[in-house]
Amino acid sequence: MRERELSDLGERERSSKTRRRMSSSSLLLFSPTTKVLHHHHHHLLSKPILSRPNRKLLLLPPPMQASKNNSGRGGGGGGGGKKDSADPPDRIISAACYLYPFLDGVQYGRYVLAQLPALQAPLAPLLPLVRLFKSFPFSSFLLFLALYFAVVRNPSGFSRYVRFNAMQAIVLDVLLIFPGLIERSFSPRGGVGLDLVMSMDSTVFLFLWVSLVYGSVTCLLGDVPRLPIVADAADRQVM
């Protein structure tokens, strides 16, 4: 009898626990918080966490930087042999500038022209200019002033191409001071001293002749002649 009462009591407790669980689950199912959480969870799942990148934007090339345009008219002073946009009059004037140091130093060719008569034929067309240049006592100094102040220091009247070549011719003529001083200081009558003077004069004349041919032809072709040592000094003077 007692055992039956205990079993009935246990069944009642189990049934009460089951009712409590069912009531709690029903409250959770119909609570507004659960609905909100469920709706929020469904909204998050409906949208992707990370949006896909736009393929059109990825395929676009990167923006190209605009290149700086540093070119200008007569900017061939530092071109180092590159083509310049010099006009034909600028080329002719620039080529004529290299006659100045050659005419001023033609006397240094007296020894080499005597030893090599074949060099006299290319110089024959220049003989009238040589006589005209040597006929005036201050022709070298006057031509120096004209080239420096009227051409090199005149950016509004001449392009940088012309002014650079004129400055190269001036610097080349200024360098002739040194062999002239050596000749005046040492005037040997013969022996080793005379051989040294003859070698020096011949070297100076050949350098002037090569500079004339190279500078004039290069200017007529529209290129920028750059003589050794002389070009750097000309670059510093021409703005």
TrEMBL record:
Question: Subcellular localization, per the record?
Answer: Plastid, Chloroplast inner membrane; Plastid, Chloroplast membrane
User: Its principal location?
Assistant: plastid
- GO CC aspect terms: chloroplast inner membrane
- Cross-referenced InterPro entries: Tic20
Q: Which domain of life is it from?
A: Eukaryota
| Segments for region (Disordered) | 1-25, 60-86
How does this chain sit within the bilayer? Answer: Multi-pass membrane protein
Q: Where is the composition biased (Basic and acidic residues)?
A: 1-16
Q: Where are the transmembrane segments?
A: 132-152, 164-182, 202-221
Q: Which UniProt keywords apply?
A: Chloroplast, Membrane, Plastid, Plastid inner membrane, Transmembrane, Transmembrane helix
Task: State the function annotated in the UniProt record.
Answer: Involved in protein precursor import into chloroplasts.
Q: Tell me which family the UniProt entry assigns to this protein.
A: Belongs to the Tic20 family.
Protein name per Swiss-Prot or TrEMBL: Protein TIC 20
Source organism of the structure = Iris pallida (Sweet iris)
Show the taxonomic lineage: Eukaryota, Viridiplantae, Streptophyta, Embryophyta, Tracheophyta
